[in-house]
Amino acid sequence: MDKVISWIDETREQSIEKLARLISQPSVSSTGEGVEECAQLLVEMLTEVGLDAKVMPTKGLPAVYAERIAPGTPTVIFYGHYDVQPVGDLSLWETPPFEPDIRNGRMYGRGTGDNKGQLLTHIIAVDAFLKTYGELPCSVKFLLDGEEESGSPNLGDFVEENKELLKADVCYFADGPIHYSGRPQVVFGCRGIIDVEIVLDENIRDCHSGHYGALIPNPAWRLVHLLKTMKDAGGKVLVEGFYDKVRPITPAEEEVLKHIPFDVESYFEGVRYPGTGPEWDRIEALKAHMFQPTMTITGLGSGYTGEGVATIVPAKAVCKIDMRLVADQDPDEIFELIEKHVKKHLPEAKVSGHGKMYPSRTELELPISQAIIGAVKRAWGVDPVVVPSSGASCPEYVFTQILEMPTISVPYANPDENNHAPNENFDLDLFIQGIKTTAHVIDTIAKHEEW
Fold it and tell me: Which domains are present in the chain?
């Protein structure tokens, strides 16, 4: 490994140039801007390293696939996404989002941290082995998603149709930041999500509240009464069957929670006003964050909400809800439970779904899980923070459920990467450290025997 790590250090500037090359190409999945061109660019970059690479069509925007097979060795598949968020208000960017700029030891530009810079670390780590030894110690595959920032709506079908091609022993990816303590973190799962909209459209038009307030239904009040039947004041979801398939926390997961640095007070700083909300115990907060599903009102509207008042009975009321799901919950089943509940309590309301993603979790006790924790420790020289599950959602389920392989994430970006925001950036020391970490992971997978 010493030769590989030395090569990574010696080629630092060339790696940074590759990052700038990739960031310079727009790839906004919500509009389609530059996505196909970026896919072609990645094929070029993967081919230059020595992999067989190609653009593969999906029902939406294209995926990129690459491989280099070393017969008789274990196979790792690297996942990443090359699409990026829209840039938003350009006036808030200090430099143009697709003109990468280096300042304060960081590269600024859309996609630096999320996720082009992090997926590039895997490509360069593969290059390090090939340049140093002429061959890889294990087989590698790449699946690069062009629609992650739009919810990866076509990734599941694509993976189902290409199971044999994508077959591997383990999936590894880097997305998100290192732990705020400065230590690396190894993440073994994520929550799923289902978005629903409830619409109650009862009156032909808004009406005078004095003339009609006592005589016609008020959809705003009726929707509020429905919502009260869905969740109690303590935060418990009241929809029948909602918690039935929640996977219990394991003793190993209970144990690692004790060692996760988590400052409850700091976590809420700048988020909620002092004195509001429940007072959380550290461990109970982590359990709720990782192992419990949620139901969140993300939008609620009816009637007049502008300056002053309008004395009306509104014609319509709308509520948007997202539910973050945990291991073993099925978003389709949860949607059916919501439909059934609404039909029982407010049958006039219409319920529709707007996107879903399945939850995922890999067992901490697996030999490969422990091996990768060890690889990250060797790469960084410190014990990583072991996280059983992220509170957020990503398309990890395509690997754990469809391809049935353990899936592990080790984020490389800085905590203040500003992903999804103006002035997105990637600390270049962490970028190089990410390359070294992936190299250690490749070496570990190659030597691993307990599959």
Answer: 2-190+359-447 (3.40.630.10), 192-247+288-357 (3.30.70.360)
